[in-house]
Amino acid sequence: xxxxxxxxxxxxxxxxxxxxxxxxxxxxxxxxxxxxxxxxxxxxxxxxxxxxxxxxxxxxxxxxxxxxxxxxxxxxxxxxxxxxxxxxxxxxxxxxxxxxxxxxxxxxxxxxxxxxxxxxxxxxxxxxxxxxxxxxxxxxxxxxxxxxxxxxxxxxxxxxxxxxxxxxxxxxxxxxxxxxxxxxxxxxxxxxxxxxxxxxxxxxxxxxxxxxxxxxxxxxxxxxxxxxxxxxxxxxxxxxxxxxxxxxxxxxxxxxxxxxxxxxxxxxxxxxxxxxxxxxxxxxxxxxxxxxxxxxxxxxxxxxxxxxxxxxxxxxxxxxxxxxxxxxxxxxxxxxxxxxxxxxxxxxxxxxxxxxxxxxxxxxxxxxxxxxxxxxxxxxxxxxxxxxxxxxxxxxxxxxxxxxxxxxxxxxxxxxxxxxxxxxxxxxxxxxxxxxxxxxxxxxxx
Length: 446
Ligand code: B12
Ligand code: SF4
What we know:
The radius of gyration is 22 Å and the shape is globular. About 35% of the residues lie in helices and about 15% in strands. By secondary structure, it is α/β, with parallel strands linked by helices.
């Protein structure tokens, strides 16, 4: 079968950038960079077929004068002539997946479109659209494989358990349960990186001259923060990969001196991380590592941070979220604000750069902004990020504030736009969030 996998472009909606003071604009995130790990894993599941993986994010970064998404898809379809087109979607990129499928079908009406990813996992029925034939929720490379096999055999897709099929009037789940698939351990699939060579120069973060790739050491998260999409995606479970498989993968990616662990929360099992970094040191693996670590973990376990620093950990992304314990309790962060200063010290003592992220709720008053400005300025980090506390569909926070949501345009669900009524006037609110980015001047994004 000929399979075309297309990564969605980014949503351009960014009210923080739009309303920020000019001086702050250079420091605000414009784009996050990196290869599409989910689709690379899907490509690995069907690699004995003829697969073309196309990264529109990389393409648009490489060629700022790029053609429209529609023109690009049209060209790809006419040149490659796929039987199946697959795409992936987080909430803010769902409409682009619809557009990709619609354009593909316009170019060739025989194409079967298959959608997967985070949003279809959390809200599969939300993906009902005339352009979508099949929805594959969950970690579903094996399910995708079953879909491809069924299409090749010309079997009905009703024979594939665990998918949703478009019946015209709605999506309907097929009967039966999909096979059990252990994405982190026994069934781990080494992502297909070779097809992304064309865009490798765009996968550089934080001013690094070297490209980076994503590797996950775990899936899911054992914590239950109300605003987070990841633990609902994995139903609260946490799956750890094996050290041997990680070491094999790290040895297999010489083109990528920078490795960003794509985990939600990398340091959960301290013993595992100790052993992993022992092996990294023993095997002479020299990489720059970037990972997400909670403030409480660094505050309580400085030893593991220095061990990882010796093994190449250079950048940490840390969700500070708020300077106030009452907010952190409300978010179920399970870490007091006092851990922030302790964590910063531990990271700095180990020469680790921190991207500390604060989330700004829509009910922030002028005084709240002033207090956060003071707090952030007295707890400085190399990069600080300030995004909007957004009720992502499928999260606990979404169900808590559902009635207060005023904007249902998914393009705005990327943490850069308030989708609820703000206490300050709408423009002023975004301007104040934009001004916060001046406090610590990160110049690029991670
Ligand atoms: C890597 C990553 C990225 C990468 C690559 C994503 C891409 N596709 O291009 C980059 C850096 C580009 C990125 C960007 C953004 N991201 Co991001 N990203 C992640 C991260 C860290 C890991 C995702 C991952 O690779 N997981 C591992 C893979 C294997 O799992 P997966 O993607 O779910 O794929 C599996 C299944 O879903 C399924 N599947 C996936 N696709 C398909 C397709 C088909 C056809 C099938 C059958 C199955 C299938 O099978 C896959 C393999 O098992 C997550 C956080 C996390 N730890 O989960 C955030 C996350 C997904 N990102 C998020 C967000 C919001 C963004 C941004 C909007 C952030 C921003 N404000 O800018 C931007 C979007 C673009 C931009 N503005 O620049 C949110 C999404 C929340 C939501 N509900 O929408 C997350 C959850 C982070 C968070 N803190 O909440 N991101
Ligand atoms: S915000 Fe971080 S710690 Fe909280 S549930 Fe999500 S991934 Fe886990």
